[in-house]
Design brief:
Strand content: 15-25%
Helix content: 25-40%
Number of helices: 22
CATH topology of the largest domain: Rossmann fold
CATH superfamily of the largest domain: P-loop containing nucleotide triphosphate hydrolases
CATH architecture of the largest domain: 3-Layer(aba) Sandwich
Strand order of the largest sheet: 6-7-8-3-9-10
Shape: globular
Structural class: alpha/beta
Number of strands: 20
Largest sheet: 6 strands, mixed
Number of domains: 2
Distance between the termini: 41 Å
């Protein structure tokens, strides 16, 4: 039996057919071939996942479909057939009738994809009005419904807020709402859950799965998270260096990977059962004074008026933490639980409503002038979002050496030598120094951000989702690097993450946060095997990757393949 779409397209054929796609970028160093001869099919009602390392061409392939490449990118060859159209030959006016209405895009980065001066609800309502799905009068209420479907809590309140007033995960859900507003036939999701905690990740992915089952919507899922791909995709496409090296039904690829690169990815994928601790998590606490103490921290924000709703939000509610030198304290919890706000309070990037912050026994809660500057040197931050944290006008060399220049450390030659050393430690070639952030992939940018944070050899590094944008193999390298630096220098990490498999590998102590409060603390080996709080158990149950093979299974398949 053959079903027909409204425009007469046969659903027994792929909704999207890519053949021989090649894409290149013009850079100051010459032309870079990012995608080379890619063939890819996406079928109605199915999720097709594209996985691979940072820089493998995943996102470039996704953006080439709707011709949303950066200004220096171009399609050199190939066809992208969507229904009866080759999208590579459509005019810009014709493409505008496809984008949004028939193809929805969830970009990787919510900070630069949402308009910072427009309320969230207005941005969703605009999509509904443009495509004739709502009137100016009905659009605001319908936008709230779409935000609710995308899993945004208190959707009516969030609709009246601006992007900077939301957490990273909430902004990502707002982008998802924009993409699904018109109920498109195809959703291209470029790392749609990399900024989300596992419980909200599950809600979003459940929703995308419902769309595929009930409406026949196709999803092209670009992700570095093999656990998500394994759990959610019917078909798996593995890319490396711009080429497809393996493709097929997800179960077949996972059970018997034929390509050495696929086997490498599977071996690097973390899970709670196979994660290898990179820190001596059972080591006793050092009998030394704490490096950092947070005592009864409170942070309240004013909310926009929304009927009889609350006027203030208590983002951090009576939080107390202790961190010693050479140790890692991980904060975990849902998006909006107060993790990042707590980190900003510790670094004095925002002022606490109440409470006290001590660094090496000195009260820095209200530090100003020279004392505040000294705090900046001793405590550094790796942001969650590498796109927004790097100055696009700077070269990578300027980005990494900027802290050294600001504190007048060394001369130009020594600073450049330090930048080369740091790039090597975060697994980037020295030639990267001459490039700008726009010429790097998301994962490469995050590695540059980590190198910059380490430039001053700080006592404390606050890591706000530092590996969420990285593919699994580079993630493993960065976690090894952080552990090595801690062992060598005694640096302390306040590590914020929604990935409990990563937390298990890096943390000595874990604090679970919910709605601004710490609900459970303990060493990871105890907290993950015998959680006391129901919320902790909920977080653990939401971890993706149940279909990933164990290292022993991967080794067996490697032997069979050879």
């Amino acid at each position: 039996m053959t079903d027909e779409r409204e425009d007469g397209e046969d659903v027994t054929t792929p909704l999207l057919e890519i053949r021989g796609l090649s894409v290149s970028y013009r850079t100051r160093g010459g032309t870079v071939e990012a995608v080379r001869g890619v063939d890819l099919d996406v079928w109605p009602g199915q999720v097709t996942a594209v996985v691979g390392e940072s820089g493998s061409g995943k996102s470039t392939t996704a953006h080439a479909i709707t011709r949303l490449l950066s200004a220096n990118g171009r399609i050199d060859a190939g066809t992208v057939r969507f229904g009866r159209h080759d999208l590579t030959t459509l005019s810009e006016a014709e493409l505008r009738t496809v984008r949004g209405a028939r193809i929805g895009l969830v970009p990787q980065d919510p900070t630069v994809s949402l308009n910072p001066v427009r309320r969230i609800g207005d941005q969703v309502a605009e999509v509904l009005r443009i495509h004739g799905l709502a009137t100016r009068r009905s659009a605001p209420a319908e936008a709230v419904e779409v935000l609710d479907r995308a899993g945004l809590p208190d959707a009516a309140v969030r609709a009246r807020q601006y992007p900077h007033e939301l957490s990273g995960g909430m902004r990502q859900r707002a982008l998802i709402a924009v993409a699904i507003a018109a109920r498109p036939e195809l959703i291209i999701a470029d790392e749609p859950t990399s900024a989300l905690d596992v419980t909200v990740q599950r809600v979003i992915l459940d929703h995308l799965q419902t769309l595929t089952q009930e409406l026949g919507t196709a999803v092209l899922l670009v992700t570095h998270d093999l656990g998500v791909a394994a759990d959610r995709a019917q078909r798996l496409v593995v890319m490396s260096r711009g080429k497809v090296v393996e493709a097929g039904p997800t179960g077949d690829v996972l059970a018997g990977p034929q390509d050495a690169y696929t086997r490498h990815l599977l071996a690097s994928a973390p899970s709670l059962t196979t994660a290898r601790p990179r820190t001596p998590v059972s080591a006793p606490e050092a009998e030394t004074a704490p490096l950092l103490e947070a005592r009864n921290l409170v942070k309240e924000y004013r909310l926009p008026r929304a009927g009889d709703g609350p006027r203030t939000l208590r983002a951090v509610d009576d939080v107390s933490l202790t961190l010693r030198r050479g140790r890692t304290l991980a904060l975990v919890g849902e998006s909006g639980s107060g993790k990042s706000t707590t980190a900003r309070l510790v670094l004095r990037l925002t002022d606490a409503t109440a409470g006290q912050i001590l660094l090496d026994g000195t009260d820095v809660t209200t530090a100003k002038g020279a004392q505040a500057r000294q705090l900046r040197r001793r405590a550094q931050l790796v942001y969650q979002n590498p796109y927004a944290s790097l100055d696009p006008r700077f070269s990578v060399a300027e980005v990494i050496t900027e802290p050294l220049r600001a504190f007048k450390v060394g001369d130009r030659a020594s600073r450049l030598s330090r930048a080369r050393e740091l790039l090597d430690r975060v697994a980037l070639p020295a030639a990267t120094l001459e490039r700008r952030p726009a010429e790097l992939s998301g994962g490469q940018r995050q590695r540059v951000a980590i190198a910059r944070a380490l430039a001053l050899s700080p006592d404390l590094v606050v890591c706000d989702e530092p590996v969420s944008a990285l593919d699994v193999s580079v993630q493993a390298q960065v976690l090894d690097l952080l552990a090595e630096l801690q062992a060598d220098t005694g640096v302390a990490y306040l590590f914020i993450s929604h990935d409990l498999a990563v937390v298990r590998q890096i943390a000595h102590q874990v604090a679970v946060m919910r709605t601004g409060r710490v609900v459970e603390t303990g060493p990871p080996e105890k907290l993950f095997t015998d959680p006391r709080h129901e919320y902790t158990r909920e977080l653990l149950s939401a971890i993706p990757g149940g279909r990933l093979p164990s290292p022993a299974q991967t080794a067996t398949s490697r032997g069979a393949a050879s």
